[in-house]
Amino acid sequence: MAGDISRLESELGHHFANSALLARALTHSSHSHETLGRENGFDNEQMEFLGDAVLGFLVSARLVEAYPQYPEGKLSKLKAHLVSAAHLVQAARDLRLGEYLQLGRGEELSGGRNKRALVVDALEAVIAAIYLDGGIDPARRFVERFVIGDRLADTAPQDDLFEDYKSALQEFLQAAKLPQPKYLVVKERGPQHYKIFTVEVRIGDYSAPAEGTSKKAAAQEAARLALEHFRKSHAAKPAETRHE
Q1: Spelled out in words, what is the top-level CATH class assigned to the domain 163-242?
Q2: Most-buried pick from 5, 43, 44, 220 (CB within 10 A)?
Q3: What is the average pLDDT score of the chain?
Q4: Catalytic: 244?
């Protein structure tokens, strides 16, 4: 059973002139298909599309304002982090959006209220609903409060958090004339909505496993470990050996 939407409005900090927009943002396609038929269109998929675009614009604008000295590449990495599902899911859970979703029976029984993809989609749809109801200013306030918050100050100085270790490792290995890495998913554990992946990087006789909440994150961590290993071993070799 979905929660009281009026209570959610208070948590969002926006009172809707058109409450149907918020209701639609919280309606999963499984519910609309069961109750209204497949072609009715009253679900949050289109709003999720719009919300993703509004979120991307607002985060980009905020980053340019906060870090005018940063190059495009660095801004892109910061933005990718802030709009990633791994980051947005925490905002969705802080708002307890799962409690308010309108789900079909199948999704309800399969734990849909706790599925990361569903609550992140709902968060993006809510951003669209706020934008359509009140314009860009309330949407900006929402994004600043629930998505960005204090995270710019917490994460921006940590450049290594956003480094592309896979690319850096590949470039290092090419320069050192070493084999290119291979990445294999060797283990998955945890519930469907919060899986932990173990990815192993293999380079010749060397291998290193690493964990992450996504395959991409685990692969990046494995690449970081490998890069650290090969940089140390390469630095330890005599110069004449390295340049043979």
Answers
A1: alpha beta
A2: 44
A3: 84
A4: no
